[in-house]
Design a protein that fits this description.
Layout lengths: L1 H24 L6 H15 L1 E14 L6 E11 L2 E8 L17 E7 L2 E6 L28
Antiparallel strand pairs: 1-2, 1-4, 2-3, 4-5
Length: 148
């Protein structure tokens, strides 16, 4: 007889747990842009630096939304394993010159030592892109000294 009295209490407890879980799972989550920014910040602060190469810069247009997306493809080696990765640099356009990024351009890559596949080449506060040897500024010539 006591077991029959527990069933309504158990049913009410289960229903309350389901409603609580539903409410917690529907609360506001961080947007994808903010999560990506936090990932770049974490890699900038705690990532290890290694040499890599830029493979290509791709400009894609998403058919559904119509927005343009810019991907920076690069590769790097960690402990004998070659990784090829892409970074969405659409929101970082002001920090890079897309026309100077070309096949074989050396770059520094920051990666997570616990997950070497997680890496970046550029963030808001750090850039691993190196200047092209063709675009390196030369020292100005001192015009006051003349050679005889």
């Amino acid at each position: 007889m006591n077991a029959l009295r527990l069933y309504p209490a158990l049913a009410f407890g289960a229903a309350a747990a389901i409603v609580g879980y539903a409410l917690l799972s529907r609360r506001n989550k961080k947007p994808a842009e903010q999560l990506e920014r936090e990932r770049r910040t974490q890699l900038t602060l705690a990532g290890r630096i290694i040499d890599g190469n830029v493979i290509d810069v791709l400009e894609l247009e998403e058919s559904e939304s119509g927005r343009q997306m810019i991907l920076l493809d690069y590769k790097y080696d960690v402990a004998g394993v070659t990784y090829e990765a892409s970074q969405d640099v659409t929101h970082l356009r002001q920090f890079i010159d897309l026309y100077s990024c070309r096949l074989g351009l050396p770059a520094s890559v920051k990666y997570d030592p616990h997950n070497p596949g997680d890496s970046i080449v550029i963030s808001e506060t750090w850039s691993g892109l190196r200047t092209s040897p063709l675009r390196v500024a030369t020292r100005p010539v001192n015009k006051s000294s003349t050679v005889v």
